[in-house]
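Need a sequence for this fold. Nothing fancy.
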């Protein structure tokens, strides 16, 4: 399956940004290419007790996933094996961060080379068919971060005359098709055409005559819209909470000693960072730190990015999504996932639909992918 990742460093050169790409899937998402563990972490850390179980989290650079890299620098956790930040000590686990490009994250997770992964609700569908998976934490949702940008095109009907360039079989194509559906249009009347998102953005920036419409995500959206004459035709605000960024843990991992505590430690880290981010005295510095791990965006760029990639900043917001109707829509998330899975099967991106459940292992036995809120509740009770 293909999706979102930052693919083209050349786009960054054109814009005067250092956009280091991630190949492949959220496939051109906004994540630096790289491998290895996270930084050693600031603040108080101790050598990991020999009995502390070690668990790995694969992450790539995207606003709400870069939280883990910065959390390591701030000492909430220590991203290297053999040392522990205060939240690792709290939960009795040693977390090893693996910074990879987005496709690398998905591949490492699917082949069981890492215990958990930062991934979208769409891109986890295929891996879940071969590795039983549990979504333990929603980190954010696209709220304008995925957009159809046009130049010289009047409206959606006028769009029919032009190719729309973007990453096929991806979050981009899904967002494009769903917007058309909601506008009462037929997807088959439009020409969604495969192109690396970085290249599509680059060509629109360079005013290449043939490229009048693109479907991309941030940071491309933010940067391309700086060009005079460009405009948003539609975006992911029209499909609220259909594109969800997650932390997913292998079912096999949760059964290990310390597995449940590992899930809780990751969740606790995310919420503790968000408490810091809510503090006006720390917010700008933390946004700058996140920007350094997300396409080198500056403070203003990150303010826009997090506005268009809305964080589920605390347990209540996450629980409302998994068990209620979310922040932006009244539709239950169970129904949303039905829509998502059907689209991927209908477009033959998935050969078969994974069996999806909601709740704990006892409530949803035999599933390929579970959305389990019990770990969020455990963290909430212990905060």
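Here you go.
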């Amino acid at each position: 399956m293909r999706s979102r990742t930052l693919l083209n460093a050349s786009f960054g050169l054109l814009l005067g940004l250092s956009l280091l790409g991630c190949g492949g899937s959220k496939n051109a998402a906004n994540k630096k290419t790289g491998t290895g563990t996270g930084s050693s972490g600031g603040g108080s850390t101790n050598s990991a007790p020999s009995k502390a179980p070690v668990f790995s989290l694969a992450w790539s650079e995207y606003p709400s996933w870069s939280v883990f890299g910065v959390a390591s620098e701030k000492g909430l956790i220590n991203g290297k094996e053999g040392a522990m930040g205060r939240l690792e000590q709290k939960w009795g686990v040693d977390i090893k961060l693996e910074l990879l490009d987005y496709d690398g994250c998905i591949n490492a997770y699917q082949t069981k080379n890492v215990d958990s992964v930062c991934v979208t609700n769409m891109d986890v569908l295929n891996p879940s068919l071969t590795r039983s998976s549990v979504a333990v934490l929603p980190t954010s949702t696209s709220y304008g971060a995925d957009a159809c940008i046009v130049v010289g095109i009047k409206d959606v009907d006028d769009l029919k005359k032009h190719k729309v360039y973007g990453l096929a079989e991806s979050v981009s194509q899904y967002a494009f098709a769903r917007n058309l559906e909601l506008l009462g249009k037929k997807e088959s009347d439009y020409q969604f055409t495969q192109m690396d998102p970085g290249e599509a953005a680059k060509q629109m920036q360079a005013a290449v005559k043939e490229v009048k419409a693109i479907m991309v995500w941030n940071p491309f959206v933010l940067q391309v819209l700086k060009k005079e004459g460009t405009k948003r035709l539609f975006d992911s605000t029209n499909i609220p909470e259909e594109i969800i960024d997650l932390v997913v843990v292998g079912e096999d991992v949760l059964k290990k000693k310390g597995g449940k505590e590992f899930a809780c430690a990751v969740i606790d880290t995310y919420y503790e960072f968000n408490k810091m981010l809510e503090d006006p005295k720390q917010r700008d510095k933390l946004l700058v730190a996140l920007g350094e791990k997300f396409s080198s965006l500056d403070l203003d760029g990150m303010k826009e990015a997090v506005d268009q990639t809305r964080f589920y900043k605390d347990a209540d917001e996450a629980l409302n999504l998994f068990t209620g109707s979310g922040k932006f829509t009244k539709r239950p998330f169970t129904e949303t996932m039905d829509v998502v899975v059907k689209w991927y099967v209908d477009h033959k991106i998935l050969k078969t639909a994974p069996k999806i459940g909601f709740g704990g292992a006892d409530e949803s036995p035999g599933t390929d992918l579970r959305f389990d809120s019990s770990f969020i509740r455990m963290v909430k009770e212990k905060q």
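For context: Residues 1-44 have pLDDT under 50 and may be disordered.
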